[in-house]
Design a protein that fits this description.
By secondary structure, the chain is of the alpha/beta class. Helix content is about 45%, strand content about 15%. It is built from twelve helices and nine strands. The strands form two sheets. A five-stranded parallel beta sheet has the order 7-6-5-8-9. A four-stranded parallel beta sheet has the order 2-1-3-4, with helices on both faces. α5 packs across α6. Bound molecules: phosphoric acid mono(formamide)ester and norvaline. The site of norvaline has 9 residues, from α6. The site of phosphoric acid mono(formamide)ester has 9 residues, from α2. Keywords: Arginine metabolism, Cytoplasm, Transferase.
Length: about 325
């Protein structure tokens, strides 16, 4: 659970939030999209730490912090001591003396959790090997913006059951939508995520997930009557089994126009990007009328500004409590 004893809140996993809290963040994102210039981060510094490459996350956070009146420091993980020769406890304590908020894109999810455990300022997860909550919340914001409430809708995930797919499983039980995943046996959801989903079902939470593991029939089953179709790269950052992945995914796991036709006529297409056009998705779908990929990319800015602003109220309260104020 990413909440410290002093009420500090972090943004590491969608499972740490109630639906009401997430809806507050989405409302704020709508406000910021209409009125981008705000003062919520005035005289505040946000560290943006990258252990992996990024285009969208880096730009949207840098611009977002600036539009909120704050300053950002982009830190290349490979040229700092964080997660290297300095332990996470020392790094977290030191950063808390300079910085008001930390965004980190990390190789290992444990690094983000460890950093948050010791940090005295809010920590945001900008992608790990396990999840990508900023992106998935943005995808949901984008869906709602185009089509209205996502509760009860059918979402199809095609391809690797990766960090994005894990986060969609978490989101399915938070928002109450139905997630159909077409994925090969070799790259299906990890056991911990499958077991967590089974527990939500047993507890009677709204929402559901189903995996279709047959590559011949699974894609059509997943997209049938879907309201939203998503895919992602076959090879995520940090994956090393490149040849095997290509062999398993390339004969079947491409979202093309014929597959999109099997979804609802008004179904949307999303991809978190970067895409390998011609592999997991065709140009025709990427550039077609159902695609909202560039709205999706833009919305990272508005949603993350809302997350930072929402977290700041807890960050400030924690600091005031520490100071006896
Ligand atoms: N979607 C996303 O997180 O993109 P970047 O890797 O470019 O940040
Ligand atoms: N699954 C991809 C997402 C990139 C934004 C990766 O982890 O590389």
């Amino acid at each position: 659970m990413s909440q410290s004893a002093n009420n500090l809140r972090h943004f590491i996993d969608l499972r740490d939030f109630t639906l009401a809290e997430i809806e507050d963040i989405l409302r704020l994102a709508t406000e910021f999209k209409a009125n981008p210039w705000q003062n919520h981060l005035k005289r505040k510094h946000v560290a943006l730490i990258f252990e992996k490459d990024s285009t969208r996350t880096r730009m949207s956070f840098e611009v977002g912090v600036n539009q909120l009146g704050g300053d950002s420091l982009v830190i290349d993980g490979s040229t700092s001591h964080i997660g290297g020769k300095e332990n996470l406890y020392d790094s977290a304590k030191v950063m808390s003396r300079f910085i008001d908020m930390i965004m980190i894109r990390a190789n290992s999810h444990d690094s983000v959790v460890g950093l948050a455990q010791h940090s005295e300022v809010p920590v945001l997860n900008g992608l790990t090997d396990y999840n990508h909550p900023c992106q998935v919340l943005t995808d949901i914001f984008t869906y709602i913006e185009h089509r209205g409430p996502i509760q009860g809708k059918k979402i199809a995930w095609i391809g690797d059951a990766n960090n994005m797919a894990n986060t969609f499983v978490h989101a399915a039980f938070l928002f109450g939508f139905h997630l159909a995943i077409a994925t090969p046996l070799e790259y299906q959801l990890v056991g911990t995520v499958q077991r967590w989903a089974a527990k939500q079902k047993e507890a009677g939470k709204p929402g559901s997930i189903v995996q279709y593991l047959d590559p011949e029939s699974g894609l059509a089953e997943a997209v049938r009557d879907a309201d939203l179709v998503l895919t992602d790269t076959w090879i995520s950052m940090g994956d090393t089994d490149y040849e095997l992945r290509k062999a398993v995914f390339s004969p079947y796991y491409t979202v093309d126009a014929a597959l999109m036709k099997q979804a609802k006529p008004d179904a949307l297409f999303m991809h978190c990007l970067p895409a390998s056009r011609g592999q997991e998705v065709t140009d025709e779908v990427m550039d077609g009328p159902q695609s909202v990929i560039f709205d999706e990319a833009e919305n990272r800015l508005h949603v993350q500004k809302a997350i930072m602003t929402w977290l700041l109220q807890f960050g400030l309260a924690a600091r005031n409590t520490d100071n006896g104020g």
